[in-house]
């Protein structure tokens, strides 16, 4: 798992290390790593033009020390202090000793820069760029220079990924010790560019439980169910899919398509589209409903394209097996029916559905996704997978790390792809995964399938995402 830690945790780990090391040792490590990445990006350091945007804190100090290292290798380095009088004194002295200078005209040096180091704010920044930093940041972005953010793009909220105002979009972010939540969660993530992690010796002093974790191929491979010699279709799990309506018959087909490729031994479809489902997928068991009369299942997925069938949602939530609720199911559910459950529940809203469940505006969810997913999970006592540009998965117990899906791709923003995801995650639930793991594996496979389907750079449909799921399993298994 890739992990991310909150500022408070990073600071106490840093303090522990600083107590054992000579003064400035940590900052020098950070700056050396930063300078190495800048040199790599410049290709030829000698004769290159580098501008340092320097804030009042240690983030500016990192930029100054890295600038000094580049100046020693022959770069022309100019510092632009944004809080004159509060510039890191030792860093500034090091830069001057190495032949760097303080810019007389920031806009002139920015106009001809090859590389800009953004050291305005790091983990100490709050509330977006301040007014005096904004014209300089805009000039940097408007130049042809490569922009390298120090630790974080300046102007983002490190712990939440929120952007409360303006921030400076980077091409590359060099982060120290460990990822911060803002590097994994939109909207901040989108401003970080490529993230490079520099080891400053922090890992051994960090707590074992991070704020966020983001799975990789081998983590997902370890979660996927595998049939054994004793397996039969019932032991592998039967997933019940309650989806589709006269108005949205396609949702039933897409949810079943996802469910058939999720590892359960059988898919039992319940609803109005039974005929269309068997015609397209003859391996499906079908029933007209209601769900309670449809036969045994090990998990239910209810909601995609369901229309107004509130009774079906209520009936499924009254069952004693794991239940996934998506789409119309989220609109129709009664909160008490969820909080009363003893078997696990997985809710899979997009930002609009999450906003309705929380009683807030959609923008509020989109700008503060981490807070929204945690709040939903706590309030409903359920695992919540919040879909969108960054998909997040939270458990009701707030001490458990929120998982961030790294595989999402904007190609998934196509009608019906959420239906495929519900079927797939429901199937993994039926196969015995916990809602937390089923959601994690489903989001990952779903994103990877979309990437595979869109490999040629052509638009994809949700049916194609479902068809690429076996290739995604194969890919994950092959590496994991
Ligand atoms: N600790 C360590 O050992 C190591 C730390 N390291 C580095 O230190 C960084 C953290 O340094 P930090 O704590 O000094 O905070 P930092 O991010 O520089 O910014 C705070 C300053 O900015 C100001 N400011 C705040 N908001 C602002 C805004 N919106 N717009 C403009 N200004 C704003 C605020 O000023 P004030 O509010 O007082 O006016 C304050 O002075 C960390 O990210 C990493 O790069 C590495 O070297 C590894 C070792
Ligand atoms: N910009 C984006 N980047 C990455 N993934 C996205 C983006 N927009 C949507 N998605 C993904 O696409 C899927 C859409 O699901 P949903 O909103 O339920 O749509 P639908 O109801 O049409 O099926 C989700 O898996 C979501 O995470
Ligand atoms: K920065």
UniProtKB/TrEMBL annotation:
Question: Which residues participate in K(+) binding?
Answer: 59, 118, 154
Against SUPFAM superfamilies, the record matches this protein to:
Ribokinase-like, YjeF N-terminal domain-like
What keywords appear on the UniProt entry?
Answer: ATP-binding, Isomerase, Lyase, Metal-binding, Multifunctional enzyme, NAD, NADP, Nucleotide-binding, Potassium
Task: Give the reactions, separated by semicolons, that this protein catalyses.
Answer: (6R)-NADPHX = (6S)-NADPHX; (6R)-NADHX = (6S)-NADHX; (6S)-NADHX + ADP = AMP + phosphate + NADH + H(+); (6S)-NADPHX + ADP = AMP + phosphate + NADPH + H(+)
Ranges of residues in domain YjeF C-terminal: 216-476
Q: Which domain of life is it from?
A: Bacteria
- Residues that coordinate or bind AMP: 387-391, 418
Molecular-function annotations in GO: ADP-dependent NAD(P)H-hydrate dehydratase activity; ATP binding; metal ion binding; NAD(P)HX epimerase activity
Pfam families associated with the record: Carb_kinase, YjeF_N
Co-factor binding details? Binds 1 potassium ion per subunit.
Quote the EC number: 4.2.1.136, 5.1.99.6
Question: Could you describe the subunit structure of this protein?
Answer: Homotetramer.
Instruction: Give the protein family.
Output: In the N-terminal section; belongs to the NnrE/AIBP family.
**What is the name listed in the Swiss-Prot or TrEMBL entry for this protein?**
Bifunctional NAD(P)H-hydrate repair enzyme
Q: Which organism does this record belong to?
A: Streptomyces inusitatus
């Amino acid at each position: 798992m890739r992990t991310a830690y909150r500022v408070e945790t990073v600071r106490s780990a840093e303090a522990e290390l600083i107590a054992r090391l000579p003064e400035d040792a940590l900052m020098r490590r950070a700056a050396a790593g930063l300078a190495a990445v800048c040199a790599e990006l410049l290709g030829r350091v000698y004769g290159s033009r580098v501008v340092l945007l320097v804030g009042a804190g240690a983030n500016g100090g990192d930029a100054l020390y890295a600038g000094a290292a580049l100046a020693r290798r022959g770069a022309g380095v100019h510092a632009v202090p944004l809080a004159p009088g509060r510039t890191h004194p030792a860093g500034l002295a090091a830069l001057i000793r190495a032949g760097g200078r303080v810019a007389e005209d920031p806009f002139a040096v920015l106009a001809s820069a090859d590389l800009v180091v953004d050291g305005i704010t790091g983990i100490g920044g709050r509330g977006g760029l301040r007014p005096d930093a904004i014209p300089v940041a805009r000039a940097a972005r408007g130049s042809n220079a490569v922009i390298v953010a120090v630790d974080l793009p300046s102007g983002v909220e490190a712990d939440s990924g929120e952007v409360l105002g303006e921030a400076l979009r980077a091409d590359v972010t060099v982060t120290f010790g460990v990822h911060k939540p803002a590097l994994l969660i939109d909207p901040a993530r989108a401003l970080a560019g490529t993230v490079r992690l520099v080891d400053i010796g922090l890992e051994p002093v960090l707590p074992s439980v991070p704020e966020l974790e983001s799975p990789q191929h081998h983590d997902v491979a370890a979660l996927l169910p595998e049939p054994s010699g004793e397996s039969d279709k019932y032991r592998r799990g039967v997933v019940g899919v309650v989806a589709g309506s006269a108005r949205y018959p396609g949702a039933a087909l897409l949810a079943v398509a996802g469910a058939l490729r999720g590892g359960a031994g059988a898919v039992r479809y319940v609803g109005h589209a039974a005929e269309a489902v068997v015609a397209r997928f003859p391996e499906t068991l079908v029933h007209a409903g209601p769900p309670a009369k449809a036969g045994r299942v090990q998990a239910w997925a209810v909601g995609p394209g369901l229309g107004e069938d509130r009774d079906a949602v209520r009936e499924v939530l009254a069952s004693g097996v794991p239940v996934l609720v998506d789409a119309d199911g989220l609109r129709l559910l009664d909160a008490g029916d969820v909080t009363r459950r003893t078997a696990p529940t997985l809710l899979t809203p997009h930002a609009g559905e999450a906003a309705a469940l929380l009683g807030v505006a959609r923008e509020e969810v989109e700008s503060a996704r981490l807070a929204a997913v945690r709040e939903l999970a706590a309030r409903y006592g359920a695992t919540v997978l919040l879909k969108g540009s960054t998909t997040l998965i939270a458990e009701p117990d707030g001490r458990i790390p929120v998982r961030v899906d790294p595989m999402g791709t904007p190609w998934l923003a196509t009608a019906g792809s959420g239906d495929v995801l519900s079927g797939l995650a429901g199937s993994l639930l039926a196969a015995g995964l916990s809602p937390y793991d089923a959601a994690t594996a489903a989001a990952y496979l779903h994103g990877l399938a979309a990437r595979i389907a869109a490999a040629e750079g052509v638009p994809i449909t949700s049916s194609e995402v479902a068809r690429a799921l076996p290739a995604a399993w194969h890919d994950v298994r092959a590496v994991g």
